[in-house]
Amino acid sequence: MKKFAVALLATTALATPVMADELMEAAQDMFSPLPSTVPALAENIVTPEKIELGKALFFDPRLSASGVFSCYSCHNLTTGGDDNLETSIGHGWQKGPRNSPTVLNAVFNEAQFWDGRAVDLAAQAKGPIQAGVEMANTPEQVVDTLNSMPQYVSMFQAAFDGDDAVSFDNMAKAIEAFEATLITPAPFDAYLNGDASALTDEEKAGLGLFMDKGCTACHAGINVGGEGYFPFGLIEKPGAEILPEGDKGRFAVTDTVDDEYVFRASPLRNIALTAPYFHSGKVWDLKVAVQIMAESQLGDALSDEEANQIVAFLGSLTGKMPDVTVPILPAETATTPRPTAEVLPQ
Question: Which residues are tagged catalytic?
Answer without folding.
Answer: 134
